[in-house]
Amino acid sequence: MAVRASDVSRLPGRRAEPAPEPQTPPGRKMVSWFDPAVLAKSGMKALLSGTFGRQADRRLLDAVSRPQPLCFDYSVDDTGHPRDELWLDYVSDLGDGWDSTYAVASTVMAPELELTDESGTRHVTRGGDVLVFGGDEVYPTASVDEYQARTVVPYEDALNKRRHRPHLFAVPGNHDWYDGLVSFTRLFCQGRRSNGWRTRQQRSYFALRLPHGWWLLGTDMQLESDLDAPQVEFFQKVAGQMRATDRVILCNAEPAWVKQQVMPRAGRGFLDHNIDFLEQKVLGKKVSVFLAGDLHHYRRHESADGRQKIIAGGGGAFLHPTHLPKVDQSPGGFVQKASYPPQKTSQWLAWRNLLFTALNPWFGVFMGAVYTLLGWGIAANLNEGAVGAPSFREVINAAVQSTGSLVMGAGVVLGTVAFADHRRGPLWKKTAGVVHGLVHLAVALLLTWGVSAIAAPLAAELQWSLRRDFLSGLLLFGGGALVGPLVVGVYLLLSLNVFSCHPNEAFSSLSIPDWKNFLRLHFDADGQLTVYPVGFRRVPRRWKRGSGPEQPVWVPDPTDTRATPPRLIEPPVVIGRTKALPGKQETGPPGPTDMMVDEHLPGGAV
């Protein structure tokens, strides 16, 4: 009987040889947002989740079927004694490319981290007992496979038993909702353990009682910036456990203080009103610290009374610009104190859109196909009986007489109008979209003219018309693949740096893995909160295996000399032990105050 090679290890006296360990990380590259396949898949999931999410809100089902404690108490230790101090890490917008996600994860999971600020002062910090994910835990869309590859594995390899597993709590963002929150619930809301963390929450929102009268609340606004009634009732009950002097840290997936100002026509003011509603009608006190992601950079606003609004969406996703949205001040007297990267640097980074063709090759293939469909019929008509290079007028006449080219041209203009940014209103959107589309049509006509001029001298040699038409199509495709994306890149550059539009598209096209950040929070024995904003100017691009259990599985390769160590973005932000400010009734747009909510807060909440 023949023995298979795979059975040799099972023979008596033979030991199986261990498989060689991989020498490169198993992670995935950053999402290429202008890859047509990614765009189609993400767009379809967003459409389906938005449609069905309105009809079948998973939060309502979980409120009935998944009981959860009012709060998870970290004000006491495992023996029941009050904690003197607590370390907590906040990471948002993670689960993208390996280099950026793992660079943040390996620093977060380190037992100890020494940081240096701009003045040279050293600060020794400790890995968090609690880890909070602030939204968008995976890209491009939620699925078990994407979570495992882009989020779970990087954090497991980063911890590698170097210290205790932190307790993890996660706030869902819009990307987590793209499968109806199914994968998010499976990973974060079923008490599952992994080699990187331990989860405890049962719902997509939660409350943490922290030492010395601090609380951290994590909300779930779904895709519609909606605060559902069961969630309101939950936080009402939590408020009933608070004392008058207790202070609140509110974690929301989106920064309402920015979105409602730059996108009022998109209904983002409703999100801001939800936050006002939580402060005034539910908590009865002003929130001391707002934490949010969604915008993939660091930005901090501070009020005269010391309250903080911090955006820290640098957990691994592509960089967003800091010079837009232009919100130096926000309602309530909040003034911008810091941004990372600096706004001037952000403006210079936008010029990388001139390399759009090289940065987004699959989009080039798509644009090559579009330009081929626009011009091939025109070129074929011009090639028939051609005895010389056609004039540009002849190209225009051929285009007008080509029904297929006219239909395709109309489709291009409609597509660019749909793509245009709406933050300046519908008139701007239509105007910018039409101009963008007409530029593509003009470039396509010029390209067709050039292709016809090249094909004309070859007409005698290429007597078979099919060969001549094939050559024209090939030249159109190549030219469109090079020039079409460049037109898009110039459009995005001008839109962002001149007209203050398209911040998301103009930077998602660049897929910049650098300028990452996370927050380390320290509640000390005096009840004082210190926020350490940790930044990564340039994340490593090359990795090697760690040398032992005291290191993560992967460590930066010393040959990558351009990588920079983590540093403090700005000096630590210190929030003293002060009494919480009472809530103040303010007028605002109609919103969730119409919901069926008990106006009288239970349990004597303030």
UniProtKB/TrEMBL annotation:
Residues 1-30, 543-567, 580-606 are annotated as: Disordered. Residues 597-606 have a biased composition (Basic and acidic residues). It comes from the Bacteria. The keyword Membrane applies. Coiled coil: none annotated. Keywords: Membrane, Transmembrane, Transmembrane helix. The chain crosses the membrane at residues 354-378, 398-420, 432-458, 470-494. Residues 556-567 have a biased composition (Low complexity). PANTHER family: CALCINEURIN-LIKE METALLO-PHOSPHOESTERASE SUPERFAMILY PROTEIN. This is Calcineurin-like phosphoesterase domain-containing protein. It comes from Corallococcus coralloides.
